[in-house]
Amino acid sequence: MNNILFQYLDNQKVKSNLIQSLRASLASKDVLILQALDIVKLSNDGVCFSTNDSSVVDTVKLKGIDKHIKKFFCDELFNGQEINIEFEILEISKEEIAVEVESTNSDNNSNKPIAPKPINLKPDFTFANFVKGNSNTYAFTAAYQVAKQPGISLNNPLFIYGEVGLGKTHLLHAVAHEIHRLYPDKVIRYVSCETLLNEYLEALRNPNRDPQKQLSNFRLVRQVDVLLVDDIQFIANKEAFQEEFYNTYNSLNDSQKQIVLAADRTPQQIKGLQDRLTSRFKGGLLADMHLPDLETRMVIIENLCRRHHVEMGRDCIEFLASSVSRNVRELQGAFTSVMTKSSIQNRPIDRYLIEDALVDFTEFDRPALTVDVIQEEVSKYYDIDLNDLLSDSRRSPISHARQVGMYLVRELTNKTLKEIAESFKRKDHVTASHACRKVDEMIKNKDDKSQYILDLKRYLQRNFESGSR
Ligand code: ADP
Ligand code: MG
Question: Which CA distances in Å does 384 have to 238, 381, 387, 388, 397?
């Protein structure tokens, strides 16, 4: 193709085709990262992408995604000819964002009506205040893309999941802030699932007997441009509300309105969720959040210090960040407690002060991770009766859960295989060794079930004190 012809290609469409094509060969997480890249130039020499996030380019190269991109362009546009792929990093500073805000607002002021900004957004839950690290880059990128282009089908719905205190609500608010900034005419609603449910129940109490009229006020939610529902897992087992939400969901989706959901687990893990909702939720973009690593936690503390005009040495920041590793909310709590102690007792912030202040936050108050605890947690997680878990049943969900249980005991306690077999009421240690090997293989082969096993392992490590017998 010559350069003149390239001029006529719509870069956005080329990017959608690229994404569609790579969905066949890459994991959905890896496809997601492509959304953070824009095609800025297509010519005989090759393709140039731009992004304002250098970690995106690092990931693309590290995971070899660039080779897939190259292959797509060679095959589809360049008749097999070798081409170059370049990445350009646009650094956007906070000052530029501020200028952009002003110009966006003034442009839009003149033309379009401004929708009110939701009043329930925390002003500091913005993208600028969110610290990125390996644990949350996908979710951040997904949220950022949604905010830039709300309603495009690949991102709809965006479903963010992760344990408490890892920044899900922060990202939902950030999306709302950013959409309001970029598209002030869009009507945005941020609501927790519980509030939405209460509004629904309230509407049902309306004395009007005609169900259509009865719910008409509640159904105003179908008229928003962007609906963000937090803690959507609370929808579980509320059959009638699920029905209503399903219709709301379809109505918004049909008119290309953006939906963003946050939950503490994946759609499949929300028990008591109707299959059709599970499949809708899974149909968009799933982005997980994990505990930030030490380095990211240190940056979070550094930011807190800057925001609160506090001086803290690097060794103290590292000590604080490594002492509190359950979630970011707790990290902030620990930071506040250090600040308070320092100011009340008029003491400088050093390791001793931090140790004193951390008494409430140290992790030795966690219950011990015993075999009983593991068995109980496994039976809860897989929804299997504890008696069945310890029985002879060979039914596949039960025997799978049992094997996972034995594997977790091996991984998280000091029990021998013989002891593991006995604690699961088995006579022979071969049973335990077979179970552990099978689970090892699942994890090695990234079997469908392996993510669940690793999630459960992480949960146990996070919430219990391991290493005990
Ligand atoms: P969740 O909704 O996942 O339970 P939140 O969004 O309420 O968690 O986050 C808990 C606290 O931690 C909030 O104050 C939030 O601003 C902060 N936080 C979480 N992750 C980050 C991050 N990566 N950078 C900055 N602050 C964060
Ligand atoms: Mg939350």
Answer: 22, 8, 8, 7, 8
State in Å: Cα 178 to ligand 2 middle. 18
Tens-digit pLDDT profile for residues 4-60: 566 667 777 888 888 888 888 887 767 777 877 888 888 887 888 888 777 778 888
Surface-to-core class of residue 158, CB atoms within 10 Å of its CB (0-12 exposed, 13-18 middle, 19+ buried):
buried
Q: Which atom of ligand 1 is nearest to the CA of 136?
A: 23
What are the backbone dihedrals phi and psi of residue 390, each rounded to the nearest 5 degrees, phi first?
Answer: -95, 10
Cα 52 to Cα 127: distance, rounded to the nearest angstrom: 13
Structure pTM? 0.63
- DSSP class per residue in 294-348: HHHHHHHHHHHHHHTT----HHHHHHHHHH--S-HHHHHHHHHHHHHHHHHTT--
Q: Ligand 1 pocket check: which of 140, 166, 290, 327 to mutate, most ligand atoms within 8 Å of Cβ?
A: 166
Separation of alpha carbons 245 and 267, rounded Å: 15
Evaluate: CB of 21 within 6 angstroms of ligand 1.
Answer: no
Which is more confident, 167 or 29?
A: 167
> Do 290 and 166 form a contact (C-beta atoms < 8 A)?
yes
Give 183's pLDDT tier (boundaries 50, 70, 90): very high
34: which residues sit within 8 A by CB, 6+ positions away? 15, 18, 19, 22, 60, 65, 69
The answer to whether 26 and 68 are in contact (CB under 8 A) is yes
